[in-house]
Amino acid sequence: RVLETTDLHTNIMDFNYYTGKDDPTIGLARTASLIHAARKDAKNSVLVDNGDLLQGSPMGDYMANKGLQIGDIHPAYKAMNLLDYAVGNIGNHEFNFGLDFLEKAIEGAKFPYINSNVYCADENGCWKNIKKGENLFTPYVIKKTEILDNDGNKQEINIGYIGFVPPQILLWDKQKLSGKVTVDDIVKTAEKYVPKMKAEGADIIIAVPHSGIGSSANPGDPMAENATYALTSVKDINAIMFGHSHSIFPHADYKDLPNTDVEKGLLNGVPAVMPGRWGDNLGVIDFKLERKNGKWTVISAATHARPIYDGAAKQPLVDADLDIRQVVELEHQGTLKFVDEPIGAAEANMYSFLTLVQDDPTVQIVSDAQIANVKAKLPPELKGFPVLSAAAPFKAGGRHGTSSDADQYVQVDKGPLTFKNAADLYLYPNTMVAV
Questions:
Q1: What is the mean pLDDT of residues 96-123?
Q2: Is beta strand 21-22 parallel, antiparallel or unpaired with respect to 15-16?
Q3: CA–CA separation, 435 vs 210, rounded Å?
């Protein structure tokens, strides 16, 4: 049994920092209970994480604002270190706060990190004495894993894990990564490394792409952001634990995708799973293996995503893991103080319920803030030039086919504004660029 978390976005607590209330629809504290249950009813299991871990909730922003010193352990890893992960993959949002923050953060993980398609591009070399042209991270690992067979006898299996990130990180975090790293195409990289993994004795190979399904019509698009469907064409990949697009697979939404079995969770015959976002699902792939002529063979596989919350019945399916809550309590309290710091005042209520069909104050205030910031920083020769601002309604509903979709709108009351209102108005710690 292979288990997967993905796109946690620092939602460690089952708590909504915008409303200030417990939220049973999100959080690793709830997913952890699913992990424990999934391990109990399987003799053999391993757990992987697929990235987008360090950014995305006020706790992530609090830690980035506070900064990490050498030896500090990020709350995401305080929690994950309790759960015995086999491996973690790097997601695109891991780069949001810069390479220095990322290096210090992942030092706190008690499990190895993998990524195969990011390379050092710095003439002076990168961290850990990595030279220009070399992989910035360990591209893959092959872990000798002890399992019990049907007769209760101990056996060993070599499980190979390989990770990928969208090449678009060079656009999304250009200012932090330009001249420091390069990124290769996901499928091309898989074709380079998977045969090596097989040659080095991997009995089973699990691809962990931080990448959505992508195109079935033209799966060979070079440098595609979403390349999971295309990865199914790479020989010897036995399973794909994917993420990035915050969706759920297997799911009826994908029933019309060519060569897709949403009952068994197969893409082109390859078992695959994508467990939503923010800890709302746990990905599960169950393999049946047989040893023939000294080699392990996959007989069958089935996948499913287990939810932490029943949207139809509007009730939680698991309780929170109290050990997870307790281990991040200090950072939780720090985040609560952080999000309540005053930053200004609003003269009217701001809601984004109709933002896709009319002018909307929740987008306007972001646009106005961008204009004010750029005007203050224009060089003397451009003073007085008009400034146009583009802003997007990120929280406009319809993002998630889950019970919490009604919460995916901006709701800021008039009066004092705090950091949590700003994070509500604009979800991402993006870099503003003026052209």
A1: 97
A2: antiparallel
A3: 30
